[in-house]
Amino acid sequence: MVLSPQAKASFQAEPAHYIEQEIKSFTTASPACRLSFMNGLMMYDEPLVRFADGDDPIFSEFKSIIASNHLTPREALAEACNKRPEEMPARLSVISWILPISEKIRRSNYVESRLPSRLWSHTRWYGEIFNDNLRMRLVEFLTGMGYLATAPVLQPFFKMRTDENGPSSNWSERHVAYAAGHGTFSLSDGFISERGIAQRCGNVVTSLELPASPRTARSPYSNCLFYLGTNCRACIERCPAGAITEKGHDKKKCQQYMRDNVGSLDALKRDGYDNDRSLIGCGLCQTKVPCEYRNPAQKLTA
After folding, report:
1. CA 17, CA 64: separation in Å to the nearest integer?
2. Residues in the chain where the model's pLDDT stays below 50
3. Which tens digits make up the pLDDT trace of 80-123?
4. Residue 199's Cα: distance from chain center in Å?
5. End-to-end CA distance of the chain
6. H or E element: which one contains 238?
7. Is the Cβ–Cβ distance between 193 and 262 less than 8 Å?
8. Backbone angles phi, psi at 169, to 5 degrees
9. Which residues does 132 contact at the CB level (< 8 Å), separation at least 6?
10. How far is it, in rounded angstroms, from Cα 243 to Cα 219?
11. Taking all residues of the chain, what is their mean pLDDT, rounded to a whole number?
12. Which residues does 228 contact at the CB level (< 8 Å), separation at least 6?
């Protein structure tokens, strides 16, 4: 990726602004962000971009909150560079983004009660392919500018595991989004940003020093109406697996439903779906709910 002298000067003057605009323009311009077989329908609206200090103490806290093997940004970048964490530069940053799912795709899921709509399923598959392209684009740009950079979820060391609490990974992009101040978690275990819960998120760790965005949430659940005492039960009622209750989200029950229904091609064929590997995901708890495309807590605190 070759930059013009003018672009280089712009990046050096305001690297955070330049990176934010690069993420937004790539999302708008990339054919991978459109469903070509749906007349070029855009999967995502304009991204939200924020930054975290790579050595923010919250990343060490994730080792007890999520799992002991959850990596800090310093550990992730060191692993990608085949070095020790102490060999990394003194300052690291994490670039975190939210990709809000577009309205037409969200609305296509409204009428569904057991399986995701075709548009939602396609977005879950092809949308993550685009997200990978964005991750790789940013890593290529940063390394081309002379900085260390990695997208942890694309590295061989990224691992998923399942224990008595259900599935977890050694690099949670939702928790990274929380660290960057994008928003908070929900009763359904989703992540509610200012553009709601119907979204995908991504991030890159880099040696480029960027100003950390503030975390303004009062608690890890400040954007969820249920935890604010409104007795919202929308996601509970939308879940076809019965995996969401007032006690939270049962990951194992959710995973089993996905395996038996959404992830089964035989089940999909019975419901009129064709044999297409993109027919995955569910997302019913992320649509037709108050937090779908906005932070519903803003009305309560305004």
Report:
1. 34
2. 267-268, 270-273, 275, 277-278
3. 999 999 999 999 999 999 999 999 999 999 999 988 888 998 89
4. 7
5. 44
6. helix 234-238
7. no
8. -130, 170
9. 151, 154
10. 23
11. 91
12. 222, 297, 300
